[in-house]
Amino acid sequence: xxxxxxxxxxxxxxxxxxxxxxxxxxxxxxxxxxxxxxxxxxxxxxxxxxxxxxxxxxxxxxxxxxxxxxxxxxxxxxxxxxxxxxxxxxxxxxxxxxxxxxxxxxxxxxxxxxxxxxxxxxxxxxxxxxxxxxxxxxxxxxxxxxxxxxxxxxxxxxxxxxxxxxxxxxxxxxxxxxxxxxxxxxxxxxxxxxx
Length: 195
Prior knowledge:
Elements: H1 3-15, H2 30-36, H3 42-58, H4 62-83, H5 90-106, H6 113-134, H7 142-168, H8 171-194
Helix pairs in contact: 1-7, 2-7, 3-4, 3-5, 3-6, 3-7, 3-8, 4-6, 4-7, 5-6, 5-8, 7-8
């Protein structure tokens, strides 16, 4: 896949997001809603694409391990949200995850793979909880959960694709692209946190 195509896909995914939080209290119903939910809020899109960009930056086994950590812990958070177990500060934590992922990219921070997995896993717990609480009224949570897992994975893949395309452009272009994406994430996360 060429760089332009990857950048276009990532851009379209970003445009599909609304600027508002898309979490607890909205209607959800089945697999289609689960697929759409992660695309319905700018915070989800930015954080999940940033996880992919960060994984691409780290390279090696981080390419699959970091996104897999996010998805795995997100599923746990989803189960907690669905079961009605409350987590404090879900919305601020999600906004902070956008800022945190943005900062990692903007400042070109490299972490060892276990630390990166733990960090994104911590963020994923809150994203998953929001997804799970969204579907708490459903009789069957499985289809909805499968939908948000697939959508999250697609957003991670878009971020990885964008990150790999930036790397192929050379070290300077890669660093510039990641820093620009990180700054956008920091600003957007701060705006979401401020309400």
